[in-house]
């Protein structure tokens, strides 16, 4: 049970990290909703495993891929036409 709790905490922290980067990119580029923003970040092996468990990024607003192993490129668009 403790392991699951720790896993969920790590999952939450990873989502905060990714969402924070996406939000910053939206603010910095002034792209609002309809335009796609893309960020790239390097994940640890553990974070990569955790990422695969996050259902949020499976929605149609997101598109992602891993490049060169642990380099995550993730795109987000708020409004899907």
Tertiary shape: globular
Q: How much is the average pLDDT?
A: 93
Percentage of residues in DSSP E strands: 15-25%
What is Rg? 13 Å
Q: What is the helix/strand order?
A: HEHEE
Our count of helices gives: 2
What separation lies between the terminal Cα atoms?
42 Å
The strand line-up of the biggest sheet is: 1-3-2
**Which regions are unreliable across 5 or more consecutive residues at pLDDT < 50?**
none
The helical percent reads 40-55%
Number of strands: 3
User: Major sheet: size, sense and barrel closure?
Assistant: 3 strands, antiparallel
Task: Summarize the structure in words.
By secondary structure, this protein is an alpha+beta fold. Helix content is 43%, strand content 22%. The protein has two helices and three strands. A three-stranded antiparallel beta sheet has the order 1-3-2. The longest helix has 28 residues, at 2-29. It starts with a helix and ends in a 5-residue tail after the last strand. The relative contact order is 0.20.
Features:
81 residues; single chain; three-stranded antiparallel sheet; alpha+beta; 2 helices; globular
Explain the layout of strands and helices.
Layout: H1 2-29, E1 37-42, H2 45-51, E2 62-67, E3 71-76
Antiparallel strand pairs: 1-3, 2-3
What's the short version?
This protein has 81 residues and is of the alpha+beta class. The protein has helices at residues 2-29, 45-51; strands at residues 37-42, 62-67, 71-76.
């Amino acid at each position: 049970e403790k392991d699951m709790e720790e896993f969920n905490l790590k999952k939450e922290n990873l989502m905060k990290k990714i969402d924070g980067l996406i939000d910053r990119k939206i603010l910095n580029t002034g792209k609002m909703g309809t335009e796609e923003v893309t960020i790239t970040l390097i994940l640890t092996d553990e974070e990569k495993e955790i990422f695969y468990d996050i259902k949020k990024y499976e929605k149609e607003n997101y598109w992602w891929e891993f490049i060169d192993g642990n380099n995550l490129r993730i795109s987000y668009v708020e409004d899907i036409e």
